Each structure stands twice: as C-alpha cells, then as structure tokens.
Amino acid sequence: MTLKRLGLIILTLVAILFAGSSLLGSWEEPQFQSRLELYQTNIVLQAASWKLPNDNKDLKPLQDALLGVKPVESATEQYQQTRQSAQTNLEKAKKQLAQLQSQPATTPTTPKSQSEYPPVSNTSSELQQQQLQQSLKGLQKLIAELDLHLGILQANQGKTQTALKTWSQLQQQSDINSEFDKVAAVLAGLWSDPPRILPNAERPIQNNLKGWFRYTALDKLYQLQQRQDASAELETIQQETAEQALLKLAVIGTIPALTAFFGVGLVIFLIGQRLVKGKTSLLAQNSDVRWSTPWDGETILQVFVVGFFLMGQIIVPLAIQLLPIPRPTQNVRIQALYVLISYLLVAFGALSVLYLSIKRFFPLPQNWFRFRLQGSWFLWGLGGYCVALPIVVVVSLINQQLWQGQGGSNPLLQLALESQDTVALAIFFSTAAIAAPIFEELLFRGFLLPSLTRYLSVWGSILASGFLFAVAHLSLSEILPLFALGIVLGVVYTRSRNLLAPMLLHSLWNSGTLLSLFVLGSSGQ
Questions:
Q1: pLDDT per position as a tens digit, 438-462
Q2: Closest Cα to residue 218, out of 172, 246, 183?
Q3: What is the DSSP letter of 112?
Q4: Quick check: 507 and 437 in contact, CB under 8 A?
Q5: 174-222, pLDDT tens digit by residue?
Q6: How many distinct helices (H) and strands (E) make up the chain?
Q7: How large is the C-alpha radius of gyration of the chain?
Q8: SS3 117
Q9: How far apart are CA 116 and CA 321, in angstroms?
Q10: Distances in Å between the alpha carbon of 269 and those of 212, 224, 266, 276, 516?
C-alpha cells in the first residue's frame, strides 16, 4: 500500500466521522420550516383583514381558497405548536449547557456545518457554551414574542381571560425583555374589564408588534381613546396592507401550485409514454448508456475527500479567518459577503483538486463535462423543475412528520428570510442561484455520477450521487427532500447529457426558494 493511498484512507475515515458527527449534531437543532410557516401565517392574517369590495360575494370563494375558512383559528393553532416546539428546544438547550458546564473547559467539540456556509474548525467547549447561551436568549425572546402574539389571537376570538392569563404569565418570567413586559402590560390593560390605558400605550405597540398584530392592538387602543380619525386612517392602511398580502400569497402560492400541477401532468405523460413507447420514450433516452470512465475509485475519493472535505471543512475555513471581515457581525451585508467568499473559495479549491486529479487523463472521452447551447437542454431543465416541485413537496411533508420540527436547516435560508436589504439579497442570490448550481452540478452530476457508472448501473449512479448530494448538506432534516431533488437532477442529466440542463433546474429551484423567502420576509416588516 502506497503512502498516498494510506493517507487517503485515513482522510476518508475522518470525513465519514465528521459527516456523521455533524448529522447527529443537527438532530437537536430546530428546522427552519417552523419559522417559515410562522411568516406565512402572519401574511395570511394580514390578508384576512381585506374587506370584499361592495360586499362582492363572488370573490369570497377565492379569498377562502387563499386564506382558509378560519384563518385566525388556524393561526392560533400554528402559534401554539411553534410555542410548544420552542419550549422543548429551550429545555434541551438548558440541559446541553448544564452538561457542558460540568465538563472540563478544554473538552473539544465538533462544530455544525452547512455546505453553503463553511464553518470554522474545531471550537472549544467554552465557545460552544457561549453559542448555547446565545441560543437560549434567542429562544427566550422567541417564546416571549409568541406569547404576545398568542394573547392577541386569543383576545380576537373572544377568549379574553385566556389572553390575560397568557400575558400575565409572560410578565412573571424573570428573563423577559423589559420592552416585552411593557407591551404585555399595555395589552392586558386594553383587554381588561374595565379597560386600563397606560401612559404612552401606543409607543410599545408600534415598536414591538408588526403586521396584523400591530393593527389589532392599535385598533383596540384607538376605539377606547375614541380617536375616530386615527381609527379611519388605520383602517385605510390595513386595507392597503391586506391587498398587498393577498398579492404576495398569490405569488408564493398560486405560481408554485400551477407549476406543481403542470409537473404532475408531465410525470403522468412521461410514465405513460415510457409504458407505450418503451426504449424510444424520453425517459428511456440514454437511460442505459454509461460513461467511459478512465479513472478508478481512488480518484473519486481523492476529489471528494481532499477537494470537497479537506478544502471545504478545514483549509478554506482556516484561510478565511485571515480575511479582514469582522466576525461575528450583525451587518447582513457582511454576513452575505462572508457566505459568498467562503463558497467561492470552497468551489475553487474543490474544482482545482478535480482538475489536477483528472488532468493526466486528458483528452477525456466523449460526453464528459459537456456544455452545449444547442439542443433541448432548456426544456429538460425547465421540465425537470416542474417535475421536481410536486415530488419534493410531498417528500417534505412526509419529512416534517418524521422529524417534528427538528433536524436542523441551512442557515443561509434564515439569513435570506430575515434580510430585506437589497444588496445583501443580491449577494445571497449570487451564491444560491449562480455559484451553487455551477459548482455542485459540476461536482455531483458532472464528475461523481458519470464516475460511478464504472461500478454501478446508470440508475444506481443516480441514486448514489443523489444521496451523497443530500448528505453533503450535513442536515438530517434535509436529507430526504434533497435526495429527491438529487434524483431528479440525475435523471435530467443522464437523459440530456448536457450539464446546462441540471444547472438550470438547480438555479430555478434555488431562485424560487429565495423569491418565496423574500416575499414572506417582506410581510413581517
């Protein structure tokens, strides 16, 4: 055994241990989906305030289809579920912090990583304690916000005593933010019997509540103060906001729904054509044609272990610490720039290792890393996106039931949701919709999938490369949805034999996700 092969075996074992540790570490982390659902719930509440023009009953079925029959009741249930999940995560975080504090300060731990957000290398137990303490503060703040909102939802449904109890329990918490304490006191006063209007009651509402919750609380305040002009102005603003919310719901709901509907029809057509036409159908095109692969498994391991793992998880994270970028920072533009620079460095490092690993096999056989502007690649990419949407949505729904809000998520999604900075969003878009499709499709579909056909069938290579693509994101809750997406990407590439097709599909997928996050995030401003 050569020294190179021995080193590669050791690095492979380290990479497997690291990936396994990171996946297990994501077990306790909350899914991003729960926060995303809250944003969508808030925009539904805003849209529910829309009054039909001239009591036009013809629009009522459309409104019910977009908002549901009982939007306030549905929102209350969603907030209660999120509150329960946050409380569970808070207890887990407290337990983890207590365990860390009982260990020696020098105990090493393994950091959590995401493919689009390369981590710093090993962190100390002390630093992890600080991160857990920050997480505790974040969860405590989230629970306080949820209780404020829950109380308003309960009061809106006539459950005044339940609402007063919710706000009273919030005020009794020792770790509550003083601003939240003021808001809870103001809200409790407004809905008390008889009502109490505290001095400067409007300011805490304006500063700490948003959207439907702010309008509901202000409407109650203005009615008690008998400020008819303020109430009329508030109603006008609320109707304008409700119309905008309806438009946003149409964008993030109707367009994907129509795309998914077309995708289902396309799946039925393709399967039917496969059954009728057999090997002459679109799905059978190139389905059994393997690539001629001049290298062996050692080269495959070298590219992924040295290029993807070593570069992405050790070398680049260490190198990026030398860049003059302040960390941590609250500036979302700097965070977005950090993500983009990190990703570009990882991509450059991995692709450099790929090039050096296969350089001696040049010129490559036909069909390797093929980019052709001519042909039907655009239709394959667009059609693949339409097919992937309903498949991944169904898998995601099943996945949510399996993980019950746990399993971690990509932090880039959270940043994109909460950022309404145009420059930051442009940088996020460059990372997710341009850099990621090019790099990941070159690596997973351009290199890995064809290389695996030396040992597996085309379908076996699609499944194996799709699974590794999902695992590479190092988040347990995302494995099944990304595996499904990876399979569709693999089918599109093996049939089209043009990397532009899966790159287009990947870019459309990430662009659609970012657009939805931007629209949902703007509703909370």
A1: 999 999 999 999 999 999 999 999 9
A2: 183
A3: P
A4: yes
A5: 666 778 888 999 999 999 989 999 988 899 999 889 888 999 999 999 9
A6: 22, 0
A7: 26
A8: strand
A9: 17
A10: 44, 61, 5, 10, 28
Q: Which residue shows structure tokens 């095109």?
A: 285
Provide DSSP, 156-179: HTT-HHHHHHHHHHHHT-TT--HH
**In this predicted model, what pLDDT tens digit does every residue of 1-44 receive, in sequence order?**
678 788 888 888 888 888 787 777 666 565 555 667 777 788 88
Report residue 287: phi and psi, to 5°.
Answer: -70, -25
Q: Is 208:186 a contact under the CB 8 Å cutoff?
A: no
Structure tokens at 294: 């001049």
Could you report the per-residue pLDDT of 125-166, keeping only the tens digit for each? 666 677 677 777 877 888 888 999 999 999 999 999 999 999
Taking Cα atoms as reference points, which of 92, 103, 105 lies closest to residue 25? 92
Is there a contact between 439 and 347 (Cβ–Cβ < 8 Å)?
A: yes
Interior angle at CA 482, CA 476 and CA 487, nearest 5: 135
Look-up: residue for tokens 């860049």? 323
Task: Tell me how far CA of residue 332 lies from CA of 114, 233, 318, 418, 498, in angstroms.
Answer: 18, 34, 22, 9, 36
User: In this predicted structure, what is the pLDDT of residue 319?
Assistant: 81
pLDDT for 111:
40
Q: What are phi and psi of 117, to 5 degrees?
A: -140, 75
**Distance separating alpha carbons of residues 436 and 116, to the nearest angstrom:** 8
Share of the chain above pLDDT 70, in %: 82
Contact between 348 and 438 (Cβ < 8 Å): no
Q: First and final CA of the chain: distance in angstroms? A: 61
Question: Environment class of residue 389 by beta-carbon count within 10 Å: exposed (0-12), middle (13-18) or buried (19+)?
Answer: buried
Tokens linked to 90: 């808070």
Residue 106 has pLDDT above 50, yes or no: no
Output the CA torsion sign for 414, 420, 421, 424.
Answer: positive
